[in-house]
DNA sequence: GTCTATACGTAGATAGAC
DNA sequence: GTCTATCTACGTATAGAC
């Protein structure tokens, strides 16, 4: 009994997902240019040529991963933004999200950063990245400003505070990726939030 | 009048330094594997083949840069360590050093990190890197512990606090490297130190 | 849909001229 | 000491067999 068109489509979707999943680790570990298509193929358990059946090029895979990662974070930030939580709670939720991602999928954040730094990247992926950067920091900054108005976030330039938080989260993803195990003594959300919160608001 | 042996030696030293300086930027920007020898050559204003007169391979240049950067930071940390400053002041001095380096030579910190992450690296460079990681964090951790004993640093696992600080500094270098200009609103030392210091010890 | 074999280009490294 | 020309290896992408 031959496979139906639906079966084929399902296989195709699965393979695409396999490739993307495998690529995430390899890209984060070795970077875009150092990653060979053969690396991806073997990581995904596929033959070399087959990868080209699903993606036109290495850069296309990279761009796709970036798109997904960006969308993921943006979605979460938006859902938090429209919630009725307090500004500090929103910041906490966002940090927890990023930290959790850093632990379980450190590739994500790191690949986004690579995309920022790298030169040779498809224009579409670059556009997504730019949007991500401005949109996220814009949102986080608004939380900080609201918190300052209610007196739960310390005074100071929101841009600076936003950057400080970004740096901490960024560095965490980096650290997580380098040390290939989950190290004991991971920084807690509270430690990071101490940079922003007014004395006494955290335990 | 022919050049003396000293002249030749001086020229040789200068060229080596030229190559290293030029390489730092390129490596940080593009990563080890994406960097071509031709990139380095043109960045240094030299011909392609000449680079091989001074270095045997691309990896050797990279390793040399890493060694320098590591030594630089280690030296500073040691000099601070033996000073009679308070633990919090030592931490502040170290942060200021790293932040300043991040601003003026963001390549440094970023290249060290790359070296951590990358797989294909000369064994010697790897050894230097490992030493760096353990030595630095060991020193910083000792400052944190001393500060906790004198009551100027908050209670908590020193390993965790050390990591948090490391993340922030790490992320800053990354950010600095990605946004190719010196952005307004750079995080201040105080903001980072708020993660560690007891309430009221900072302005 | 999946694989292996091949053509093409590019980058690392060397040799030899000036 | 400095350059250009060349050899070689490897990685991308494609073509064609199963």
Low-confidence stretches of chain A: none
Question: What is the mean pLDDT of chain A?
Answer: 89
Tell me the count of domains of chain A: 2
Secondary structure: number of strands of chain A: 0
Largest sheet geometry of chain A: none
Determine the fraction of residues in helical runs of chain A and give it as a percent range. Answer: over 70%
CATH topology of the largest domain in chain A: Tetracycline Repressor, domain 2
- CATH class category of the largest domain in chain A: Mainly Alpha
Q: How would you describe this protein?
A:
- 2 copies of one chain form a homodimer.
- Chain A has 203 residues and is mainly alpha-helical.
- Chain A folds into 2 domains: 1-55, Homeodomain-like (Arc Repressor Mutant, subunit A); 58-203, Orthogonal Bundle (Tetracycline Repressor, domain 2), CATH 1.10.357.10.
- Chain A is built from 9 helices and no strands.
- In chain A, α7 (123-150) crosses α8 (158-178).
- Chain A is elongated.
- In chain A, 38% of the residues are buried.
- The model of chain A has no long low-confidence stretch (mean pLDDT 89).
- Chain A binds a DNA duplex (18 and 18 nucleotides) through residues 3, 8, 11-12, 15, 36-38, 46-50, 52-53, 56-58.
List the SSEs and their pairings.
2 copies of one chain form a homodimer.
Chain A: H1 5-30, H2 37-44, H3 48-54, H4 58-81, H5 87-104, H6 106-117, H7 123-150, H8 158-178, H9 189-193
Helix pairs in contact in A: 1-2, 1-4, 1-6, 2-3, 4-5, 4-6, 4-7, 5-6, 5-7, 5-8, 6-8, 7-8
The structure holds a DNA duplex (18 and 18 nucleotides).
């Amino acid at each position: 009994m031959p496979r139906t068109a639906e079966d084929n489509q399902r296989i195709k979707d699965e393979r695409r997902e396999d490739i993307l999943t495998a690529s995430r680790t390899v890209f984060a570990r070795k970077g875009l240019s150092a990653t060979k298509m053969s690396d991806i193929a073997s990581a995904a358990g596929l033959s070399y040529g087959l990868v080209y059946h699903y993606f036109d090029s290495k850069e296309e895979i990279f761009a796709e991963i970036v798109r997904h990662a960006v969308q993921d974070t943006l979605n979460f930030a938006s859902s938090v933004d429209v919630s009725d939580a307090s500004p500090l709670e929103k910041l906490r939720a966002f940090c927890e999200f990023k930290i959790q991602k850093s632990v379980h999928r450190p590739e994500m954040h790191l690949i986004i950063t690579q995309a920022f730094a790298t030169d040779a990247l498809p224009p579409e992926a670059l556009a997504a990245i730019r949007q991500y950067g401005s949109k996220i920091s814009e949102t986080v900054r608004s939380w900080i400003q609201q918190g300052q108005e209610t007196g739960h976030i310390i005074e100071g330039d929101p841009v600076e505070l936003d950057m400080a938080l970004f740096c901490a989260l960024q560095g965490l993803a980096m650290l997580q990726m380098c040390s290939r195990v989950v190290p004991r003594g991971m920084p807690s959300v509270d430690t990071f939030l101490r940079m922003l919160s007014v004395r006494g608001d955290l335990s």
